[in-house]
UniProtKB/TrEMBL annotation:
Family under the similarity heading: Belongs to the glycosyl hydrolase 5 (cellulase A) family.
Species lineage: Eukaryota, Fungi, Dikarya, Basidiomycota, Agaricomycotina
Protein's UniProt name: cellulase
Enzyme class, spelled out: hydrolase
Domain of life: Eukaryota
């Protein structure tokens, strides 16, 4: 090391407490690969058996520049008994998928997504249903498996809704403490309310979520998880789009910047195979790209085990050709 470099290093150390944050410093873009979550109801019921997303999709999408794969699963598949041990047979199947995604490129990240709407069989976590300890149990076990892999991001819960936000945020704090106690240093995704709504985040759950602390220190490893669709009722069930969401995301970005310069990931968004969505999704993802690093990136809903007839499909055709939405509106905004 040359003297000039040493001096420079000392100088930057001196400003380190203010300038250095453990922020997520890679722009992310990719896709949800659904399947292990099939038949999870919004009330947390589950009646399925799980469908394995095709592993070939990871190399396909990584070859086009994708570096984020969100892999949802039903809580009941991972731990058949509430608060019980992970089913090692199921975990082995799930982990094979996770490793296929991670192996698809050296820079690929995976969001392990507990897709249960803050519920188990109709009952809300910490609010009459599973105890916070039962909720933490699955994550401490997953931390034992993935706790040393920085490319695995823990999506602590998919789309909480219709619950007491104060108590929900307390449940999240309990889980954050538990996974750190278990030795995990992974980035954690904290979801708010109203199905992880990006729109209600600044006024509903956001003001509480910014208060969640990380035993690791700082808040740079606590990212917020937001969803937003572009159809008439923000449900992601219609083929046509009516908004590009830029106003909603601008409001979110202002809130995050004003509250400690925090970061969020748009982990679900999507549209149908229609010209309105080709335009609106492209404008949305262009904005997401421009708002990095406040918005770390996005994963579009969805490929995986969905077939090409699903209304929001980005599953490639069997001949390997991509959906037009992917080509027109997603691919140009990958990292
Ligand atoms: C554990 O997972 C395997 C493989 O998915 C499945 O066949 C089995 O039924 C599961 N066990 C329980 C108790 O759910
Ligand atoms: C939510 O829970 C908090 C803490 O238990 C309680 O003080 C508050 O009254 C609850 N809010 C509603 C709307 O029930
Ligand atoms: C692949 O299949 C799709 C759907 O049938 C079709 O639209 C497309 O033209 C095909 N692409 C090639 C290169 O054959």
């Amino acid at each position: 090391m040359k003297l000039a470099t040493v001096l420079l290093a000392v100088a930057s150390l001196a400003i380190a407490p203010q300038a250095v944050k453990a922020q997520f410093s890679t722009r992310l873009g990719g896709v949800n690969t659904a399947g292990y979550d099939f038949s999870v109801d919004t009330n947390g019921d589950f009646s399925g058996t799980g469908t394995t997303p095709p592993a070939s999709q990871y190399t396909h999408f990584s070859g086009e520049g994708a570096n984020l794969y969100r892999i949802p699963f039903a809580w009941q598949l991972m731990t058949p008994t509430l608060g019980g041990t992970i089913n090692s047979s199921f975990f082995s199947e799930y982990d094979t998928t996770v490793q296929a995604a991670l192996d698809s490129s050296s820079g690929a990240y995976v969001i392990v997504d507990l897709h249960n709407y803050a519920r188990w069989n109709g009952d809300i976590i910490g609010q009459g249903g599973p105890t916070n300890a039962e909720y933490a149990s699955i994550w401490t076990q997953l931390a034992q498996n993935y706790g040393s892999d920085e490319r695995v991001i823990f999506g602590l819960m998919n789309e909480p809704h219709d619950l007491n936000v104060t108590e929900w945020v307390a449940s999240l704090q309990y889980v954050v403490n538990a996974v750190r106690e278990a030795g995990s240093t992974n980035y954690l995704l904290l979801p708010g309310s109203s199905y992880s709504s990006a729109e209600t985040f600044p006024t509903e759950a956001g003001p509480y979520l910014v208060g969640v602390t990380d035993p690791l220190g700082g808040t740079g490893k606590l990212l917020f998880d937001v969803h937003k669709y572009l159809d008439s009722d923000n449900s992601g069930t219609h083929a046509t789009c009516v908004t590009n969401n830029v106003d909603v995301l601008e409001t979110l970005v202002s809130f995050l910047q004003d509250n400690g310069d925090r970061q969020a990931i748009l982990s679900e968004t999507g549209g149908g195979e229609t010209t309105s969505c080709y335009t609106d999704v492209a404008q949305e993802l262009s904005y997401v790209k421009s708002a990095y690093p406040t918005l770390v990136g996005f994963s579009i809903w969805a490929a995986g085990a969905f077939d090409t007839s699903y209304v929001l499909t980005v599953t490639p055709w069997s001949n390997g050709t991509d959906q037009t939405l992917w080509t027109e509106a997603v691919k140009p905004y990958l990292p």
